[in-house]
Amino acid sequence: MKAAVIVFPGSNCDRDMAVAFERAGAQVSMVWHKDTALPDDVDIVGVPGGFSFGDYLRCGAIAAKSPISASIKAHAERGGYVLGVCNGFQVLTETGLLPGALMRNANLKFVCKPVDLKVETTQSDFTSDYDAGQVISIPVAHHDGNYTVDDATLATLRDQDRIAFSYVDNPNGSTADIAGVLSENRRVLGMMPHPERAVDAAHGGTDGVAMFRSLVASLETA
Ligand SMILES: NC(=O)CC[C@H](N)C(=O)O
């Protein structure tokens, strides 16, 4: 299974995401944002966390205009998998691959701590190794994590079972406590918490491992 992890100026979780994929058994290439093409036969693109372009304009807005972003969009539009974490989730909303926007945290502060998440759906290759309703602990680290959608979009996300994770104790003001959402075809996941920072006992927890393992296992058998 082949993964590509995108590197923007200011990415800081790119290596962590690569290690998480590698430990789950994926072959990983790092792809600079100025490249125009993804490696051949890539199964999943990881859009990592960080502060791309210093968070100027809006978090993720400049990265969404990088040359590689058109290829990420094309990959998703032909049914390819994409995982966007934190700044990566912000990039995916800015490209239009996922609905909604990540606004400034409700308390206007940077929040950096492990949080409890409820697994809202197991109907995706990202979440199938968890149990429905399972509570997992995954770290957050952001100042613009306040996921905001209008009522009609929220109703669609609920009707289509596209809320992947919700916060048990909402740290940022997100609509309906949403921590992560899936695309309509369930192959693009964006989430503010960092599963790649929870894949080793030294991280203080390993609840992120199941996501990378289930992805690699399902993409290998696909
Ligand atoms: N860890 C991250 O990816 C942070 C994303 C973004 N820079 C924010 O603070 O909201």
TrEMBL record:
GO cellular component: cytoplasm
Active-site annotation: 86, 194, 196
Highest taxon above the source species: Bacteria
Family matches, as Gene3D superfamilies: 3.40.50.880
UniProt record, GO biological process: 'de novo' IMP biosynthetic process
Intracellular or extracellular location(s): Cytoplasm
Keywords of this entry: ATP-binding, Cytoplasm, Glutamine amidotransferase, Hydrolase, Ligase, Nucleotide-binding, Purine biosynthesis
Subunit and partners: Part of the FGAM synthase complex composed of 1 PurL, 1 PurQ and 2 PurS subunits.
Purpose of the protein: Part of the phosphoribosylformylglycinamidine synthase complex involved in the purines biosynthetic pathway. Catalyzes the ATP-dependent conversion of formylglycinamide ribonucleotide (FGAR) and glutamine to yield formylglycinamidine ribonucleotide (FGAM) and glutamate. The FGAM synthase complex is composed of three subunits. PurQ produces an ammonia molecule by converting glutamine to glutamate. PurL transfers the ammonia molecule to FGAR to form FGAM in an ATP-dependent manner.
Name by which UniProt lists this protein: Phosphoribosylformylglycinamidine synthase subunit PurQ
Source organism: Maritimibacter harenae
Biological classification of the source: Bacteria, Pseudomonadati, Pseudomonadota, Alphaproteobacteria, Rhodobacterales
